[in-house]
Amino acid sequence: MSIDLLTAQGRAGLDALVADPARALVAFDYDGTLADIVDDPTQAVPRPEVVDGLVAMSSRVALVAIVTGRPAQWVVDLAEFDTRAGLERLVVLGHYGAERWDAATGELQTVDPPAGLKVVRSRLGEVLASLDLSGADVEDKGLSLAVHVRRLPDPADAFARMEPVLGRLAADEGLVVEPGRMVVELRPAGMDKGQALGSLADETDARTLVFAGDDLGDVSAFREVERRRSSGLAGLLVCSGSTEVTALADLADVVVGGPAGVATFVADLLAELGPS
């Protein structure tokens, strides 16, 4: 199956990658892109064929990266990346780039949590109770807090009611909110996926950037690829499509059907690269 490209820029990006894969950075979001969205985030494991594809891809390109809002170690543990051979060119950037795990060394680099997070952690239960959302799932990521409403009776209403209130709570303590698919995350300011992706591109001196994502937190990474394309680099933007979030589809060069579609895209991309 061939890759269904929607734009001329996407075609140029794919052609550049095939012509010089050793100068390509291929990056992915995690939840909703490599792993299906599930009610329990601790059970969000990537599809096995996706992991196999990343192993194969890592031997062909400059770097394979995962840029996620999750803690980096959580992703490594869920995907069992530290048990897979052939992933030496994999980097996991967690907490939107605040953390880094390198497969080549197995080392994790992290930072201290911001002071305001302790205050938000202590107040969050009271705030949710005032909104009649005590049944929401609170995911403590160490450097951030995520409130999931997917399992509530009316998730869309719950999300609409909590987003502005949590935004004010975050702002009061010097944090920012990151809305997503039936989740609002309260996290430190100063880093986003676009900055994280840009830093990796500079580090690898990449001439082609590929990024696949599914949610609003991935828009900044899409914008970073667009910015670099305007400066002459090649880029390919892939949307892992869903009915919950449609904003990325309008920006993408390729739209696929969720993580299953991403797995097919990776296989098709490897086919485009030909035998190793």
Describe the structure.
With 276 residues, this protein is an alpha/beta fold. The protein is built from 8 helices and 12 strands. Strands 5-4-3-2-1-10-11-12 form an 8-stranded mixed sheet, with helices on both faces. A hairpin with a 4-residue loop joins strand 4 (99-102) and strand 5 (107-109).
Can you summarize this structure?
The protein has helices at about 10-20, 50-60, 70-80, 115-130, 155-170, 195-205, 220-230, 260-275, and strands at about 25-30, 65, 90-95, 100, 105-110, 135-140, 145-150, 175-180, 185-190, 210-215, 235-240, 255. The chain is α/β, with parallel strands linked by helices.
Rg (CA only): 18 Å
Output the strand order for the largest sheet. Answer: 5-4-3-2-1-10-11-12
Point out poorly predicted stretches.
none
The percent of residues in helical segments reads 25-40%
Q: Could you describe the largest sheet, including whether it forms a barrel?
A: 8 strands, mixed
Q: Count of helices?
A: 8
Assess the beta-strand content as a share of residues. 15-25%
Mean pLDDT: 94
Secondary-structure element string: HEHEHEEEHEEHEEHEHEEH
Alpha-beta classification: alpha/beta
Give the N-to-C terminal Cα separation: 19 Å
Number of strands: 12
Query: Looking at the structure, what is the overall shape?
Result: globular
